[in-house]
Known about the structure:
Strands 2-3-4-5-6-8-11-12 form an eight-stranded parallel beta barrel, surrounded by five helices. It is 40% helix and 15% strand. The chain has helices at residues 17-20, 33-39, 60-74, 85-88, 98-113, 129-133, 142-157, 170-178, 190-214, 236-249, 253-258, 263-266, 269-272, 277-286, 333-345, 377-395, 438-449, and strands at residues 3-4, 10-14, 78-82, 117-121, 163-168, 219-225, 229-231, 292-296, 301-305, 313-315, 351-355, 400-406, 425-427, 434-436, 451-452. By secondary structure, the chain is of the alpha/beta class. The chain is globular and about 55 Å long. Helix 8 packs antiparallel against helix 9 (190-214), helix 15 runs parallel beside helix 16 and helix 16 runs parallel beside helix 17 (438-449).
Amino acid sequence: MNYKFPKNFLWGVGGSAFQMEGAMLEDGKTLNTREASFFSVEGPREKFIDPRSPAVCADFYHRYPEDLKLMGELGPKVFRYSIAWARIIPSKDAEPNQKAIDYYNDVIDHMIANGMTPFMDLFHADLPMWVVEAGGIVCPDFVEWYARYAEVCFRAFGDRVKYWSTVNEPMLMVFSPYSTARSIPFEKDQKKAFRAAQNMVLAHFESARRLRKLWPDGKIGAVHNFCEVYALTHEPEQVAAAERRVAMYLTMLEPMAKGCYPRELLEWPATREYITDELIGELEENHEPMDFIGINFYCPKYAYFAPDALFGNRERKDVDIPRDGYGFANYPSGLFDALLRLDERFDGIPLFVTENGYTQTRSDVTSSELEPFRHDVARISYMREHIRACARAIKAGVNLQGYFYWSFMDSWEVTRGFTVPMGLVGVNFDTLERQPRDSFYYYQQVIRENTVD
C-alpha cells in the first residue's frame, strides 16, 4: 500500500560547504580545522584513509550553476547547505569578506531559481582555524565571535533564507576535539568539553535572538546527530545504560530545546560532576526557544552498562545486522522509534530528518570510477524503508515536516575522503564528471508523486 505524504511535506537533499566547494584558499578564504588537520605534518592529526587533498572536492564553488540546475531536475523543495565561516570571516578581526557574501548570494539565488527553498547551516564541521588559535570554542569570547558571524549572514541572506540551523551535530563539534582528542586541538579534558558544549549552546541562543530581531519571520533551530539506542537484555542496569546513551545524544539538544540538561545525565555522577550549577544557571538565564529540531539519523546503536565510561555505557558493535560502507547498521525501524521519542520528549516541536543516507565503499581508495556505483539497488532499498518509517511516524502523530537525503552528490567525507560514494549523483574526483545514479531517479519519483511505495 502506497502512502501519500502531506501536501506541505518538504522533500530535500543536503550538502555542506567544506565537503563540496573546494576553492580552499580562493577569494580570501582561510583554513578550517578539517583542512588544517589533513595538511598537518607535525603533531596529532586525524587518520585519513584517502591521500587525496580536499582542496578541490567536487568543485561546487565553480560549478554550482550546473549542479543546482541538475538538482532542480531532481525536484526537491529544499536544499540544505552550509556557509563556510572561514570564507565569510577569514580572521578574528577581519571585516566580512564581500567576495564570499557575493558568492553565497548567487548560490541562494540559483537555489530559488531552480525551485528550492534554502535551508542554511551556519556551522557544519568546519571551524575556522583562527577560532582555534584565538582560544577555541572554550574561549569566553566564542559566543560573540559566533554571533557576529551569524548576524553577518542574517543581514546578507535573511531576506531569502527562512530556515536556519546554527550548528550541525554539535556533540561531535565539541566532544571530538576536547573529550576524545580525535580532532583539533586533540585534547582530553572533560571540563573543557562541557564548557565548550555550553558555549556552543549559548552561541545558538544569542544567534536566535539576533535573527528574530532582524527577521521575525525566520525559523531557527539546530541539527543534531541522534540514534535510537537499544539494550540487548531487560536487566535494569542495561536498560538504564541504553537510556543514558540516548541522553548522551541529547547533551546539547535538550539545553537548546528546553533550557536544561537531560535528567539522566544529572542523575549520573560522572556527568553531573561537569554539569555544574553555574552551567545550569546560564542555561536558565539565556534560553531562547527553537523553532524546529533537525536530526541526522543513519542507524541505531546498541549499548551496554560500563560504569567506568563517562556516560556509563559503551557501544556494543557485535550485533549481527546489515551495515553500509561506513559500518552503520541498517535498521529503518530505528528511525521510527527515534521520531516517536523526540516528538514525545519535546512536546511535538516540528522535526526534520535533515540527514539520512547510505554509503558504499571503494576497494581502491584512489579510484574515482563512476560506473560500478551507478546501479545502486541497496541505496534505493535503504531510502524506501527509511521514508516508509517517516510515513509511519506521521501516521502515528509525529510532527515531522521534512525528509532530506544526504547527500545530493558524492563529497569529501572527512577521514574517508572520496572513498565512500554517498550521493544520488556520483562525482569522478579526477575529471569532475557528474553522473546521476538510479537512486536519483527513484527519489525523483518519490518527490514528484509525494508518495512512498
